[in-house]
Design goal:
Radius of gyration: 19 Å
CATH superfamily of the largest domain: NAD(P)-binding Rossmann-like Domain
Number of domains: 2
Number of strands: 8
Structural class: alpha/beta
Distance between the termini: 35 Å
Helix content: 40-55%
CATH topology of the largest domain: Rossmann fold
CATH class of the largest domain: Alpha Beta
Largest sheet: 4 strands, parallel
Oligomer: single chain
């Protein structure tokens, strides 16, 4: 394995790496995952998500037209295209989808976008996300502050997402946007209650301590379409995925305590 370093927002940098490596497949996973509603998130997500994706696709067109698999988001356009993006991150992903379609139609780029739903699983270090933050709080014996938990989300285990990217790379489908999710929706409250049962069943939770966020869409992956296109479906149940996730964080906390001692 060789690590190359470049700022994907700089087309010249991205082109140089593409010229030297000349890959057959490019997985574009870089970007900002900040879903803040603040005004300063507009420029950050525009640069990190849209401009970086354009840099990758431009370099791919200029050097060999490799297959490009983009990481889209469930926050992108859903069944109702009239839904307004809920935050700058969502808007940047909507724009990325439009550019990918243009690169495919105009420059004949072999590009496929996977619209990933709510990923969870071992190894996530960004504690601002729900699952790792709640697990960490519960492992410390505390009850995390929570919203009403009524929002229903399509949750998908990280190993299944990896398998989806591999299946996409091996397929001959191009110019499409395909959903990567379980095909079922489970509320945030139900997920948190599952985690409590796994970690501390005696702990009492207080839902509704935090306000619900505005413009939170409830969407579900169109799994049959994805299965037909690239032969992929999830294989990890929510119960099994949450159990494996809790086990990983529990071991990580124990290891962290050992390092401190």
């Amino acid at each position: 394995m060789t690590w190359w370093q470049a700022d994907l927002r700089e087309v010249a940098d991205c082109t140089e790496v593409m010229r030297r490596v000349r890959p057959d497949v490019v997985f574009h996973l870089a970007g900002s995952v900040d879903t803040s509603r603040n005004l300063d998130a507009v420029q950050e997500t525009l640069s990190a998500n849209l401009l970086a994706a354009i840099g990758v696709m431009t370099a791919a067109v200029e050097h060999g037209l490799p297959r490009v698999v983009l990481a889209g988001s469930m926050e992108g356009p859903g069944a109702d295209e009239r839904d307004a993006p809920g935050h700058p991150y969502s808007a940047s992903k909507v724009a990325m989808t439009a550019y990918a379609k243009m690169f495919h139609a105009l420059f004949h780029l072999d590009v496929l976008e996977l619209r990933i739903f709510m990923v969870y699983g071992p190894g996530e270090t960004r504690l601002a996300h729900l699952v790792p933050s709640v697990i960490r709080e519960l492992l410390s014996g505390a009850a995390p502050p929570l919203t009403s938990g009524q929002r229903r989300i399509d949750w998908v285990f990280v190993d299944d997402v990896v398998d989806a990217f591999i299946a996409a790379a091996r397929s001959d489908v191009t110019g499409r946007v395909l959903d990567v999710g379980s095909g079922t929706r489970t509320s945030v409250r139900e997920v948190v209650e599952r985690l409590v049962r796994l970690i501390d069943p005696e702990l009492e939770l207080g839902f509704g301590q935090l306000p619900d966020r505005e413009l939170e869409h409830e969407r579900c992956a169109r799994v049959d379409e994805t299965a037909l296109a690239i032969g992929w479906r999830t294989t990890t149940t929510l119960d099994e995925g949450m159990r494996r996730t809790v086990e990983w964080y529990r071991a990580d906390v124990i290891a962290e305590l050992g390092r401190r001692s």
